[in-house]
Each structure stands twice: as C-alpha cells, then as structure tokens.
Amino acid sequence: MTGRTTLRLNRLRRDTSGERAGRPVAARGAKPRRRGAQPKVVALGGGMGLSASLAALRRITGDLTAVVTVADDGGSSGRLRDELGVLPPGDLRKALAALCGDDDWGQTWARVIQHRFQSKGDLHEHAVGNLLIVALWEQLGDHVQALDLVGKLLGAHGRVLPMSAVPLELQALVKGHDPDRPDEVDTVRGQVNVALTTGEVQSVHVVPHDPPAVPEAVAAVLDADWVVLGPGSWFSSVIPHLLVPELLDALIQTKARRVLSLNLAPQPGETEGFSPQRHLEVLGRHAPKLALDVVLADVAAVPDRDSLVDAAKRFGAAVELAPVARTDGSPRHDPELLAAAYDRIFRMHGRIGPWR
C-alpha cells in the first residue's frame, strides 16, 4: 500500500468516525438534527421486503438503521462470497439503494449501485454496488466502516449494518423436497435452494449455529424506539435474524416497541399456501420468547381477521390492518401507503414519542 493510499484511508476513517460512534449517516446537505427529535427505528430483513420497508421508513424518520441478513449464496453475491470469502453484499446493496433520496443525486446513485454488467465474461451479472462494497471491505478491513462510507457517498437516509460478521449458510428441514418422496423430510442447504423448494419448510437454522452478531447492530436494537421485522422471504430473510443469539437476545430485551410487517401474499415455494396467521405461528416456533407490540398487514390480504388477531395475541400484539399494497395489483408494497401505516402505528401505539 502506498503512502498516498494510507493517507487517504486514514482521512476516510476520520470522516466516518461519527457514524461509527453510533450516529446515523446523514443525507447530503441535511441539517443537523436535535437528538430525540425523531423516532429511532431499526428495520430487520433482507432482499426486496426490507427495501420496501426502508423506502417507507426513510420518509418518516431520519434516524433509521437497517440490519441485513448475510446468508445469500446466489447470483453476484454468491460468486463474490465463494471467490473472496466475504459477506454476501447483495442485500446490503439493496438496502443502501432503498435509503437513497428521491432527488437527482439519490436516484442516480441508486441506479448506479443497482446496475448489473452484461457481458460474455466474468463480469456478467455482477452488480456495481456489490463490487464497490467488497472493494471497500478489502481496503478498510472493516465491514461497518465501509458500509458507512458507501452510505455517505450515496447520501443515504439511514445506516446499513450486516446482522453477523461472518457469512452464514441457511439450512432447512423440508418435507417433500423430493417430489418422489412426499412424506420424507430432507435437509436443504443454501438460501437459494430454501427459497425455491417446492416442499414444505418445517424449520430453518444457520451454520455456524452460534454466529457472532455485529456489535453495532445489537446496540442499535437496544437503543431503538421502534424495531420493524419484515416483510420479506419468511424463512430466508426474516427468521434468520432470530437465529443469531446475541441479536435475538437484544430483540427480547430491548425496550423498543416491535412491529411485525406481514407479506402481501405467500411466496411460491417457501411459504406456499401460508395464511397470515401461519406466518406468525412459524415465527413463534423459532423464537418462542419473542414479544411483539403490533402486527401490520394489508387489509386485502387478511381473509380471516379473527384468526390473525388470535395468533397475534400469543405475542402480546395488536393487529393493524391498512391498505399498503400498490394499486396495480402486484404483490408489492407502496412506499407512501406503507409510510402512512408506520407513521400511524408509531403515533398511536404505546408511548407517544418526542418527535410529535
């Protein structure tokens, strides 16, 4: 490493020292916020579900932290993970893109980091953001500091953290994974295989079985006013957070209010045929000590409200139904409608925060 490079990296470390100390990455040009002026929100998940939640939450708070699963083993992330032994960067990249603002700067950078190369060579289907994140990991030798730096470059409206400091392998017990043996239970390995299985997922676990949590992620959960879990792929993006012991302990011990945001529809393969209440039942089997305050669901996605209310009561939670889906009929959340639902929940449930 040259002397010039060393000076540059030292300068970058100083520039991100505030974020590393626990202060969120501010949007480009944002004014300093008075501490306590907005709710401190932590959102947990991965993939497009977490992106939808972040796109909504950044509209109602500037104190936002995403804690992202690190079990992806497919596509560009899987290739970088296999070749370099790094955390899979894809879900982290998607979270950063979701936190970009709606101005020209934010939307330009969101498109850039999501851009995938198209070629006949080794770069085919690699995402620009994945390469940028991994390059900074190698340069700085620090997962959190590198992600803070990318967030600063993008003007992200929040902070992105990995849930664990080591890449995880997701494994599932699946009944009928082999169509020729519909009653047998097999172990299915890898997030992609779990997400695509045509069998019935019974349970999931991660390898290593006792992975270390990222300390900053644990601290964020303990310091939050609100924690949002979901939406997203239930077994491969939502439940994995409950399989990191230190993170689960923080979710149980935190004084924050906890919101579970349900999916708009069952996911083909992974949760085929699941009712809203069954999503809660499998969550409870993986984390029986976890309490919730609110379960949020789209009003059109709940055919049996009473059954969902009964399932939510086992967690100590109330049910909030609201229109949160896009009006085009696709099973995607509308960021403005979801933001309105979160805002109403934050105002009406539990303590009224100082941001009001």
Topology:
Layout: H1 3-15, H2 17-20, E1 40-45, H3 47-57, E2 63-68, H4 75-84, H5 90-98, H6 104-114, H7 128-140, H8 143-154, E3 159-162, E4 169-175, E5 185-189, H9 191-196, E6 200-207, H10 215-223, E7 226-229, H11 234-238, H12 245-253, E8 257-261, H13 276-286, E9 294-298, H14 305-313, E10 318-322, H15 335-348
Helix pairs in contact: 3-5, 3-15, 5-6, 7-8, 10-12, 13-14
Question: What would the average pLDDT be, to the nearest integer?
Answer: 87
Q: Based on helices, strands and strand pairing, what is the structural class?
A: alpha/beta
- N to C succession of SSEs: HHEHEHHHHHEEEHEHEHHEHEHEH
Rg (C-alpha, Å): 20 Å
β-strand percent reads 15-25%
Give the proportion of residues in helices: 40-55%
Summarize this entry quickly.
This protein is an alpha/beta fold and 356 residues long.
